[in-house]
């Protein structure tokens, strides 16, 4: 039962293959490789990344790699679906709140072009035939709620032949098949107000689980890192939002969107898209979709 860990995307990534064959080590190495490749292309915390090179060229139809194009295309589609509650053009607002430091060096990374405050996802134009991305106005794309999930999904495809495996990228999970006991994986959901406690335990198989919480405070001030892009302030009606979906990119981005929308609208979005979820308010009220499978 090999378990390996590496640091990638500012977090500890752990891969556990339950019944590994002779090719497991090579597959796990390829799986980790996706985290580094996608980070290199999609981070806004490295001036030389493909994303930051795109951000530096407003008004230009920039050819994009398959990875970056997929990430931006997905982010824009979800922005449309959520009515702008999720919006990848929030990067300038994030930087203004202190979320602009390279995690390994602590160096402040500034955008080459100063973004404008009232930009939205509608200022991003995609050309699927030419696979180009055009930023119609100066802005900073932020793919923080997309890229890690994309990497988890790519890693899961590498491990699919082994059927039973778990990927944990700082709490963004994909659980393939069954656990070492031959049962669905049990996933504990962190209590948003009691350190070390769980507020729920879920049973999951061949699905991703991702949570957004207001307890992650990493900016220069006291606010958490989840902004309502429509208002430019921290979303305040939710303490945590957990989504169970077919893939981690979808689950991660929807957890952010549901957090911003609030409990009722957030659950409505999850129901409309056919995924499961649990939303907890700061007062510890619980809202959940009907399909959520709790562990006994």
Can you walk me through this structure?
The protein is α+β, with helices and mostly antiparallel strands and 296 residues long. The chain has two domains: 3-32 and 146-288, Roll (T-fold); 49-135, ApbE-like superfamily (T-fold, Orthogonal Bundle), CATH 1.10.3980.10. The protein has seven helices and 15 strands. It has helices at 24-42, 50-55, 66-81, 91-96, 147-159, 248-261, 263-273, and strands at residues 3-8, 11-17, 61-63, 124-127, 132-135, 165-169, 172-176, 185-190, 198-204, 207-213, 227-228, 233-234, 240-245, 276-280, 286-288. The chain has an eight-stranded antiparallel beta sheet with strand order 1-2-6-7-10-13-14-15, with helices on one face. A three-stranded antiparallel beta sheet has the order 3-5-4, covered by helices on one side. Strands 8-9 form a two-stranded antiparallel ribbon. The longest helix is centred in the N-terminal third of the chain and has 19 residues, at 24-42. It is globular, with a radius of gyration of 19 Å. It starts with a strand and ends in an 8-residue tail after the last strand.
């Amino acid at each position: 039962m090999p378990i390996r860990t590496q640091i990638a995307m500012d977090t500890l990534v752990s891969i556990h293959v339950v019944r590994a064959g002779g090719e497991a080590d090579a597959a796990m190495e390829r799986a980790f490789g996706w985290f580094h490749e996608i980070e290199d292309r999609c981070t806004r915390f490295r001036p030389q990344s493909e994303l930051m090179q795109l951000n530096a060229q407003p008004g230009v139809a920039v050819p994009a790699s398959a990875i970056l194009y997929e990430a931006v295309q997905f982010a824009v589609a979800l922005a449309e679906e959520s009515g702008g509650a999720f919006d990848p053009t929030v990067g300038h607002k994030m930087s203004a709140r202190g979320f602009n430091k390279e995690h390994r060096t602590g160096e402040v990374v500034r955008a080459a072009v100063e973004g404008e405050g009232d930009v939205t996802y509608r200022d991003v134009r995609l050309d699927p035939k030419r696979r180009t991305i055009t930023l119609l106005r100066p802005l900073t794309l932020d793919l923080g709620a997309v890229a890690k999930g994309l990497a988890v999904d790519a890693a899961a495809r590498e491990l699919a032949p082994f059927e039973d495996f778990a990927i944990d990228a700082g709490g963004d999970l994909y659980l393939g098949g069954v656990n070492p006991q031959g049962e669905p994986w049990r996933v504990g959901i962190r209590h948003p107000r009691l350190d070390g406690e769980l507020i729920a335990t879920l049973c999951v198989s061949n699905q991703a689980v991702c949570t957004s919480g207001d307890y992650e405070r990493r900016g220069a001030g006291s606010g958490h890192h989840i902004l309502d892009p429509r208002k430019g302030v921290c979303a305040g009606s939710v303490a945590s939002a957990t989504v169970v979906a077919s893939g981690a990119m979808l689950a991660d981005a929807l957890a952010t969107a549901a957090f911003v929308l609030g409990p009722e609208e957030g659950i409505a979005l999850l129901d409309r898209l056919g995924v499961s979820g649990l939303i907890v308010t700061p007062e510890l009220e619980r809202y959940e979709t009907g399909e959520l499978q709790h562990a006994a």
